[in-house]
Amino acid sequence: MNALDYFNARLEATISPMDFMRSKQMDPEKYFLIDVRNGPIHVRSVTIKDANVIHEQELPNRLNEIPKDKEIIVYCWDVWCNTAAKVAKSLLEQDYKVKELTGGIAAWQEMNFPVSDTTKVDNISDNCGC
């Protein structure tokens, strides 16, 4: 793979927080955002605003919650976490249209974009799968 092919593939497979915010503002119904992070509740209590929380290990049992008619955006912790990439690969193999949010929640928070506190939601599992 040459450099051009690499960067084209990278741009096809990812979306930056800024590009996601801009695109979502223009077309709010285009995306289905999923927080796929694993870990105990106390370390993942903050999520991107309006994100659907479906942890990586829960994915096979919750596919019915993920719409096939939207572009799926997955995110995890930061640039060193590969959980979102693993989930994206799994969803792509099942014919979903998927991109990874570059930088994960760390980049999102660094840009001071909107977040939610999920500790107020009763149905979040503390089974982190770690």
TrEMBL record:
Residues 27-117 form the Rhodanese domain. SMART domains: RHOD. Pfam families: Rhodanese. InterPro entries: GlpE_sulfurtransferase (IPR050229), Rhodanese-like_dom (IPR001763), Rhodanese-like_dom_sf (IPR036873). This is ArsR family transcriptional regulator. It comes from Heyndrickxia oleronia.
